[in-house]
Amino acid sequence: MLQLNSSPRRPAQRVFAAATSLAVLAGGALTALVCAGALDARGLAQPAQDPPPPNDRPALSFGAADKGDSRVRVSSPAKGLVSYSLADRKISLKWSWTSTGPRPDQHSVQEESVAFWPTEAIGMRTDRIAVAGVRRERVVLELWTLGTSPLPAPRIDADTGQYRYGELTLPIKEREELLNEPLAQLGPAAVLFFNPQAPATFTDSLYVQFATSKDVYRVDWRESDRVRVSTKVASPQPAPNLIVEPRLADPFRIRWSADHPQHGFVYVLAPLPGGPQPIDGLVLLDLDRDGALDNTLRLDGTAWNAGGWGDAANYVTMY
Predict the structure, then answer these.
(1) Contact between residue 165 and residue 153 where contact means Cβ atoms under 8 Å apart
(2) Looking at residue 3, what is its pLDDT?
(3) Of 97, 92, 91, nearest to 79 (Cα)?
């Protein structure tokens, strides 16, 4: 059965931010949170790089499992996927490209260490990745900018006459800290969604669902003046000016965002497929593709299968 949330709410769109602060609008309360980290030559907060203590590792039961790789769009003529390892504190970038020689299909893995316990990683717009985690009882969210690199050219080994293939590594040009907030307030960032339509004047936007509160925030970033704004947009608990969806508290394990021909921009949450129970999913909807959530859609197993929600061919674009 397909069920539309009958009481959608639209959050008030307010902006309050400075170069090194983040405005969080939660239930009408405005809290300025100072972003921690060293200052660069421009006076902007940069992520700390020393490792977190071992006992700082979060014990996650919500969104803790591997959510599947997220697609990365890059300027390089290569295809990318990003994933994370909480235990190893690493972000993995899996590259594939077409080369010459007897093995044209080439693959390599680029691993990047992080100074926190990663809990989520997704691809954003071209050459951008969002990475979230926990460090010293704080939730952190970083926006990475990737550089470019030529594809490795195969060479013939002079001794063996065999083709040798190199590995692709794209430089991380910048790691910009978008969020640095006390962990106790919301819990770790369990789910990230790329928002393809950033609000006016902003260059990047994403949705964040937190593991403890299960609340969903939209985080917007303007590159020109390093302004960042966070707005609470949905919650499983009743609250004014929010989309109220009790199923946000369900233990979903996989996620993706996409452009759907009938439903606009969709943000899909579902349990792992192949279990004893049928897929029972939840979809956050941006029906008019304006970058703001409008409603939610609840899908039982019948509606999930009938609508082909698990088939990539039924989406205009998957992000």
Answers:
(1) no
(2) 63
(3) 97
Handedness of CA 155, 157, 160, 161 (dihedral sign): positive
Q: What's the CA gap between 79 and 77, in Å, rounded?
A: 7
Nearest to 151 by CA among 75, 205, 97: 97
Rounded CA-CA distance 116/251 in Å is: 24
pLDDT for the residue 129? 98
Tokens at residue 260, please?
């759907």
Q: Are 318 and 308 in contact (CB under 8 A)?
A: no
CA distances from 189 to 41, 52, 144 (A): 29, 17, 16
Structure confidence at residue 60 (pLDDT) = 57
Regions of the chain where pLDDT drops below 50: 10-46, 61-65
CA gap 123, 144 in Å, rounded = 10
| Number of other CB atoms surrounding residue 90 within 10 Å | 14
Per-residue CA distances from 314 to 22, 91, 265 (Å): 37, 29, 13
- H/E stretch holding 240 reads none
Closest C-alpha to 291, from 213, 239, 218:
218
Cβ 146 vs Cβ 170: under 8 Å: yes
- Beta carbons within 10 angstroms of residue 21's beta carbon: 14
What pLDDT score was predicted for residue 145? 97
H helices present in 110-206, as ranges: 183-186
What is residue 35's predicted lDDT score, i.e. its pLDDT?
30
